[in-house]
Amino acid sequence: MSVPLKVIYNEESTKSIGNDLRKVAVQPIVNYSNISKSYGDLQVLRNIDLDIAPGEKVALIGPSGSGKTTLARLLMTLEEPTSGTIEVDGEMLWHQKTNGKLVKANEKHLHKVRGNIGMVFQHFNLFPHMTILRNVMEAPRNVLGLSKEEAMERAVTMLKQVGLANKIDVYPAQLSGGQKQRVAIARALVMRPKVMIFDEPTSALDPELVGEVLEVIKAIAAEGEMAMLLITHEMDFARDVADRILFFDQGRIIEQGPPKRIFNNPESERLQTFLSRFNRH
Amino acid sequence: MWSWDYTLLILPQILEALKITVSATFVAFAVALVGGLILTLARRSDFKPLSLFAQGFIEFVRSTPLLVQLYFIFYVLPEHGLSLSPFIAGVIGLGLHYSTYLSEVYRGGIESIPPGQWEAAKALNFTPLETWRKIILPQSIPPVIPVMGNYLITMFKETPVLSAITLVEIMQTAKMLGSHSFRYLEAFTIVGVLFLVLSYSSSLMVRRLEVRLNLR
Fold first, then answer.
1. Exposed/middle/buried for A117, CB within 10 Å: 0-12, 13-18, 19+?
2. In Å, how far is B125's CA from the nearest CA of chain A?
3. What's the CATH number where A240 sits?
4. Whether residues A91 and A136 fall in one domain
5. What is the pLDDT of residues A245-270, one digit of tens each?
6. What pLDDT digit, counting tens, does each position of B166-210 carry?
7. Cα(A120)–Cα(A118) distance, rounded to whole angstroms?
8. Which residues of chain A from 185 to 214 reach within 8 Å of chain B, CB to CB?
9. So what's the ipTM on this one?
10. Same domain assignment for residues A105 and A224
11. Do A71 and A33 share a structural domain?
12. A75 to chain B: nearest residue by CA?
C-alpha cells in the first residue's frame, strides 16, 4: 500500500465500537454520524459512527445481512437513512441548510454531493443497449458535460487501464463476467469520484475470473488519492489492499483495525468465529 | 346476385373514404402513443395527486364503452362550449381510449428493466430525465413495438365505430351506398375485403418486425 495514511490509529481503543480514529487536522472524506437504517421492524444498521479519510481503503467484512451493503448504499443515495447524517467532503449528503435550518436534501442537492461518489456493483449493471465504449463515455458526456472527443479520450484511456481497449465496439452480452466487471470499474472510475464503493465486486464471478478483477482493483488502490469502500469476502484481497478492516455483524461495527491485527489477532469472539471459516488448514 | 359492374361503380367512392379510415387510424394511434406514455409516467410519479389522477383516468376510460366516450366528446362537449368536427372528436376519443391500453404496454416494458439499471444510472449521477432518455426508454420500447403494432391493427378495425359520430369512413360509405341503391352485398363485401387485406398484411409486417427485433 503506497497511499500515505493521513490519520493516526489509536491502537488501544480498537476494542470500542465505533470510530477509533484520532483525526489529525484532516477532514474525513466520508463521515457517518449516528446512522441507523430500518425496514419496518427490521433494523439493519444500528447507530453507526464512521469516518473515512481521504484516500483511505476500507474493507467491510462480515456475514450476509450484517449491514455492510446497506451502509454503502446509504452513501450512494440508493437508500435513505432512518436516522443520522452522512457527510461527504465536508458537505451533508441527505440534509441541506435552508434559511439556517437543517432540512431533508432535495434532488438538486443530492445530485451535487453524489458526484463525489462512485459505485461498482456485484452484478455489474452495464447498459446492454450500448457498446462498451458508450457505456463508459455516456456519463462523462451527459453528466459532466464533456465534449464527445474529450469523453471518448477519457473512456479509451480508462478501458486501456482495465485491459479492454480492444473491445470498445463490443456489446456487454458478448463479454465474460470478468470483462464485464472490468468495464463497470472503468465506467465508474472515469467519473473521477473521491470515494469509490466496491460492493462484492467478485462475488458473482466464476472463480477463474476473480483474479483478473482483483488485480485491476489492486492497481487502482495502489495508484491514488481515491478513498475506497470494499465490501468483500475475499480475505486475502482485503488483507492486501485495505488500510483498515471493519468487521460488521447484526448492524454494528464489532471490531476494526489494520489488516495485520484483525486477521492475526482478532479480539472479539464473533470475529474469531467468522474468520475461522476462512482458514485453509 | 353479385354485379361486377356495380362493384366497379362504387369502388372509387369507397376507396376515397378509405383515406379517412386510414388517416383516422394513424392520427388516433399517434394520440394513443403519446397519451399512453404520459399516463404511464404520470402513474409512476412521486407526486401523489398526479399519480392518482392518472390511475383514475385509466380505470374510468377502460370501464366505459368507447361509443359512450365518443358521444360525450361529440354531442355533450358542444353544450359546454367545445365543438369538434367528427374527425377530430373521433381521433381524440379513439386515441384517448387506447392510450389507456398502451399505457399498460409501456408499463410492462418499463417494469421489465432490472432495478440494477436504475441504480447504475444513479451511481453515475444521471438526472432522472437523462436516466429515462438514455437508459430506460431505449431498453423498454423496442421489445413492446410488436404489441403496439397489434394495437394499431385493432384500432384500424375499430374505426367503424366513428360512424356513430357522423364520420364518413368506409363502413358508413358502404351503408350510404347501400341505402341509396338497395344493394348492400357488394358494398359491404368490398369493405370486408379491404379490412381483411389491410389487417392481415399489417399483421404479417408486425410479425416480420418482431423477428427482426429478436435477432438483434
1. buried
2. 6
3. 3.40.50.300
4. no
5. 999 999 999 999 999 999 999 999 99
6. 998 999 999 999 898 888 999 999 999 999 999 999 999 988 888
7. 7
8. 187-188, 191
9. 0.87
10. yes
11. yes
12. B123
- List of chain A residues whose C-beta atoms are within 8 Å of the C-beta of residue B120: 121, 125-127, 184
Q: Are residues A245 and A270 in the same domain?
A: yes
Confidence of residue A75 (pLDDT cuts 50, 70, 90): very high
Give the residue-averaged pLDDT of B20-49: 94
Query: C-alpha grid cell for residue A242?
Result: 485495505
**Close Cβ partners of A18 (under 8 Å, ≥ 6 residues apart):** A48, A49, A50, A253
Cell 365543438 found at: B83
Q: Model pTM?
A: 0.85
Nearest to B205 by CA among B158, B146, B151, B141: B146
Which member of B120, B135, B139 has the closest CB to residue A121? B120
Can you tell me which residue has the cell 394511434? Answer: B29
Alpha carbons B170 and B14: distance in angstroms, whole number: 6
Residue-range definition of the domain harbouring residue A156: 125-192
Query: Is position A158 within any domain?
Result: yes
Name the domain count of chain B.
Answer: 1
- CATH number of the domain at B30, please: 1.10.3720.10
Q: What total number of domains does chain A contain?
A: 2
